[in-house]
Amino acid sequence: MYRNLFRYTVVITNTMKNIHKSLLAFGVITISLLSCDTTKQKPEDKSNSSQEEIAFPSFDQYFNNLENFSGNVLVAVYNKPIFKKSYGYANIELSVKNTSQSKFRIGSITKQFTAMAIMILQEQGKLNVTDKLSHHISDVPESWKEITIHQLLTHTSGIMHSWALEGFEDNMMLYTPINEIIDKFKDQPLDGYPGEKFQYSGTGYFILSTLIEKVSGKSYETFLKEEIFDIIGMANSGSDAPEKIIPNRVSGYYSDSTGTYNSTFIYMPILTGGGNLFSTTDDFLKWDQSFYDNTLISKESKEKMFTTELNNYAYGWDVIKSDSLYRTSHTGSVPGGLARIDRYPNNGILVVIFSNNIRNTNPEMGGEFSKLVLEELDKTGYNNK
């Protein structure tokens, strides 16, 4: 039973490592140019779009060239979509294609919504990011008592990453409450003294979800719906769970050299706060715009949210800021879903990619497509309009 699970876990773990490496590499270089041989025959159009004219054919060609890519792509400039297409199938067995209404698992991009919830609670006067976790939650182990909310948000708490816990992959198939998942980490040693170093930790965001519930008096799901999704109109986003009826929810797959298969089952609530949400690319256009309008939090809180600590990480966002480039981004990877968001606030550019098929290599999730977008927009002058 666990042979396929181990096989799939290796695929997804390697995918996450490669994505992270590519993300850092993309951040320390300036925008590179991608060449393309225009003499080659145009590949077959694998998209599901019925539009007759594509403003940026190189974008469409990029995804048509990817083997077994399935998902949705959105590129917008100043809240105006300039490229929006669907590829592949929402459900292969039923021959249902992806559409703009398809809902995808966004994995670790969930963390930026958890971070936003914390900032909202701070503005409501219910907590401060400088507070120690133990100030709000009393039953924490001795080693956690000096950990602050800020350190949980920036992956500097020292608490180990969820996937590093032996047996975590086995637990992901079980219907286990998030509190029981967190309890499994309480007797684990810290990877470092709080605030000492960057150590990516999904566990830290699981803990933040319980903090949100404790302080707000609402479930994590309800708080996000009422304080974020409803306010900015993200009507097609929410918490994933297998027992729910979720219209247009995609099925998840993985592909290797032998074929395409159903993804390993995961009980998504075990990732609450760190990777349990689903969304659409259209909803992410609204999410992006909320930062320009300061709809959810003040400008001051937004600046705090995007202030980096170690390893260019802020509150739920990777942030690269230099004279030539300002990008806020994140990736997500869970069984059955890959996701990436790149925002370029100085240029009003948004790039969102959601996929429901994890392949052996997923270059679009490492920043390759975003580089192409920047090149094309710079070449055409579109981003200066």
Gist?
The protein has helices spanning 2-27, 57-65, 110-123, 133-136, 149-153, 168-171, 178-183, 202-216, 220-232, 281-293, 299-305, 368-380; strands spanning 71-77, 80-87, 89-91, 96-97, 104-105, 238-239, 253-256, 259-262, 277-279, 318-321, 326-334, 337-344, 349-355, 357-358. With 385 residues, the chain is α+β, with helices and mostly antiparallel strands.
Essential attributes:
385 residues; alpha+beta; Beta-lactamase; six-stranded antiparallel beta sheet; three-stranded antiparallel beta sheet; 14 strands; globular
Describe this structure in words.
- With 385 residues, the protein is of the alpha+beta class.
- The protein has one domain: Beta-lactamase.
- It has twelve helices and 14 strands.
- It has helices spanning 2-27, 57-65, 110-123, 133-136, 149-153, 168-171, 178-183, 202-216, 220-232, 281-293, 299-305, 368-380; strands spanning 71-77, 80-87, 89-91, 96-97, 104-105, 238-239, 253-256, 259-262, 277-279, 318-321, 326-334, 337-344, 349-355, 357-358.
- It has a six-stranded antiparallel beta sheet with strand order 2-1-13-12-11-10, with helices on both faces. A three-stranded antiparallel beta sheet has the order 5-9-6.
- Helix 3 (110-123) packs parallel to helix 8 (202-216) and helix 3 packs across helix 9.
- The longest helix has 26 residues, at 2-27.
- The protein is globular, with a radius of gyration of 20 Å.
- The termini are far apart.
- Residues 1-44 have low confidence and may be disordered.
